[in-house]
């Protein structure tokens, strides 16, 4: 089954085109105009083994909020499109990822019920030019538009770069597990309701 998606979204604030392959090798070609966000999305693709291409132009002269949030919206929409009716997937995924002094945990349920539980604090308000509060906005947009339940928790860590990167890597690994085909379930939808 071809589990790919291409999504384009244009508003008065951003213009984004994105292509996602859930069964890729982790190849990323990211250009959002926000260097640190590109770094994090490249890490998400690499550790999720998703092939991901993103081109985003946004109102960066105002701030990074609209671009960061809208990339999350478009990536979430791409997950929905690529997953189709979700037949045969594992549905649940989790990961606990260390990065030096940092430990981040992510758990995901491809449930059709969007929710974000974000328990990640940062010791400083910026990483380079990027506001650390924008990571919650990205993950909320991703979760709500991918129709997933996502919990992300900082278990330990002080270095803001490490905390952000571990959160992205943990989410990538959890998503990778959740979207993987489950050979025991075959072509069934992993829900007692018969739909997700």
Characterise this structure:
By secondary structure, the protein is of the alpha+beta class. The protein is built from 4 helices and 10 strands; from the N terminus they run βββαβαβββββαβα. α1 links the parallel β3 and β4. α1 packs parallel to α4 and α2 (65-83) packs parallel to α3. The radius of gyration is 16 Å and the shape is globular.
In short:
The chain has 196 residues and is α+β, with helices and mostly antiparallel strands.
Layout of secondary structure:
Elements: E1 4-10, E2 14-21, E3 28-31, H1 35-48, E4 51-58, H2 65-83, E5 92-99, E6 102-109, E7 115-119, E8 126-127, E9 130-131, H3 134-146, E10 149-156, H4 160-179
Parallel strand pairs: 3-4, 7-10
Antiparallel strand pairs: 1-2, 2-4, 5-6, 6-10, 8-9
Helix pairs in contact: 1-4, 2-3
Structural category is alpha+beta
Strand adjacency order, main sheet: 1-2-4-3
Q: Note the total helix count.
A: 4
From the alpha-carbon coordinates, what is the Rg to the nearest angstrom?
16 Å
For the secondary structure, the number of strands is 10
Low-confidence stretches: none
Helix percent reads 25-40%
Q: What fraction of residues sit in β-strands?
A: 25-35%
- In N-to-C order, the SSE pattern is EEEHEHEEEEEHEH
End-to-end Cα distance, whole Å, is 18 Å
- Estimate the mean pLDDT confidence: 97
Shape: globular
Question: How would you characterize the largest beta sheet?
Answer: 4 strands, mixed
């Amino acid at each position: 089954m071809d589990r790919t998606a291409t999504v384009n979204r244009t508003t008065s604030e951003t213009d984004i085109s994105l292509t996602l392959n859930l069964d890729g090798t982790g190849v990323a070609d990211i250009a959002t105009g926000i260097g640190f966000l590109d770094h994090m999305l490249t890490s998400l693709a690499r550790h999720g083994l998703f092939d991901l291409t993103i081109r985003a132009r946004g109102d960066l002269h105002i701030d990074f909020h609209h671009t960061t949030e809208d990339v999350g919206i478009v990536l979430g929409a791409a997950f929905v499109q690529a997953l189709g009716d979700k037949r045969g997937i594992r549905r649940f995924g989790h990961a606990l990822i260390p990065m030096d002094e940092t430990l981040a945990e992510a758990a995901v349920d491809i449930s059709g019920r969007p929710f974000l539980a974000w328990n990640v604090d940062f010791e400083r308000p910026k990483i380079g030019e990027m506001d650390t509060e924008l990571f919650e906005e990205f993950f909320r947009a991703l979760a709500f538009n991918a129709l997933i339940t996502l919990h992300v928790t900082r278990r330990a860590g002080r270095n803001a770069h490490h905390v952000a990167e571990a959160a992205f890597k943990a989410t990538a690994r959890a998503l990778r597990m959740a979207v993987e085909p489950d050979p025991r379930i075959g072509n069934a939808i992993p829900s007692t309701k018969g739909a997700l």
